[in-house]
Amino acid sequence: MVKEQIIQSVEPLHVGQFMFCRVTTTEGIIGYGEAGIWGHIEAAATCIKRFAEYLVGKRAFDIEHHWNVMHRFSYFQGLAINSAISAIDIALWDIKGKALGVPIYELLGGACRTKARIYGHIYESTIEKVLEECKRKMDLGFTAFGHINPFLDEGTDKVYFKTHVQKMQDAIENVKKMRAVVGDKDTHPMLVEDPIRPENADAMARVAHRISVPVGTGERFCTIYEFQALLAREAVEYARIDVAVVPHNPLSPVGLAACLQIAAAIPNFAIQEYATGFEAGVFESTTTHLGSDIVDHVPVPKEGFVDIPSGPGLGVNLLPNAQEIRPALVQPIKMRPHRDGFIVDQ
Q1: Per-residue pLDDT tens for 104-132?
Q2: Which of 93, 158, 174, 230 has the fewest CB atoms within 10 Å around its CB?
């Protein structure tokens, strides 16, 4: 007989550049979740504290009910609120899995797969260094890459000004350098992420219908319902649902574990982001997953895949001293200026 799990505490945990939620029950089970709104994690922390007022004393297993209360009680929602809800929601699923002694995917209908294909990040300053880093990560077990920078040709602290001709010339030169490596054979990118800002579904559809590479978008949405407008217009082929915001992961292994539980349970999964870079908000490549030093388990790439964690709940826990290992970091608010004084959205 499974003991009743009553929520005893709900706490935000600011660890490095990450915001976690720790939920503890009266039976001593601890669940962890992660808020995915990396640019405004302090706002997510405030929302977690606010929702704690409602959650303490409630049954931890009533996950769907709690989600609906938090999501519906006010007319006003958004990314900060929904990422806090998601962090709590993930933590409650973690508790339920741990209490029942099964991974979360067993509570979602069981596993469709035991492994998930992944792609790594490449953050380098030149095309030559990008290619070197790709080769290095291939030796480490990666077969796909995304966020392949340099997407800028100069530092972001410099005032931006380029004519249309200069921008086209930069693009041509980058293609020439890549062609020098791959030769004349056809290349088929899996997807292009957010070719434009995703707010305008009609504009995204026009782009999608005019390019040969499939469009992927969605990480900036805060509910699954926002995908409807894009799907109805055939404007997206890869729905990049950010589990740490909506119910993609460029964040810690906790967010990765939550995504992998979903990947195990759904039939139409394609590929999982595996963050190898962006430590402390700096665009530099790493060989290990972002935040690997603050958890007790991180799936390791092998031949382009990682194993789905099969331990109870998420299959990963924060280390007790995680906040000592990574003191809290705050994302500075800054944008690159154009020569006329307006901002550049890069």
Answers
A1: 999 999 999 999 999 999 988 777 888 88
A2: 158
What CATH number did the domain enclosing 248 receive? 3.20.20.120
Question: What are the start-end ranges of the E strands in the chain?
Answer: 7-15, 18-25, 30-35, 115-122, 145-148, 192-193, 215-217, 238-239, 272-274, 305-307, 336-337, 343-344
d(CA 312, CA 290) in angstroms, rounded, equals: 23
Please, what sign has the CA dihedral across residues 203, 171, 190, 218?
negative
pLDDT number for residue 342: 85
CB 84 within 8 A of CB 51: yes
Q: Which residue range is the domain that position 265 belongs to?
A: 115-314
- Whether 33 is covered by a domain: the verdict is no
The tokens describing 344, both together, are: 């550049």
Q: Kindly state whether residue 329 falls inside one of the protein's structural domains.
A: no
Residue 344 within any structural domain of the chain: no
CA distance 322 to 55: 25
pLDDT digits (tens, 9 = 90+) for 202-233: 999 999 999 888 998 888 887 788 888 898 99
Alpha-carbon dihedral sign for residues 253, 312, 297, 92: positive
Q: Six-digit token pair at 25?
A: 């029950």
Q: How many domains does the chain have?
A: 1
Q: Is residue 54 part of a domain?
A: no
Least confident segment among 175-179, 189-193, 212-216: 175-179
Q: In angstroms, what CA-CA distances link 331 with 16, 242, 289, 345? A: 10, 20, 20, 17
CA nearest 116: which of 281, 315, 282?
A: 315
**Sheet arrangement for strand 18-25:** 7-15, 18-25, 30-35
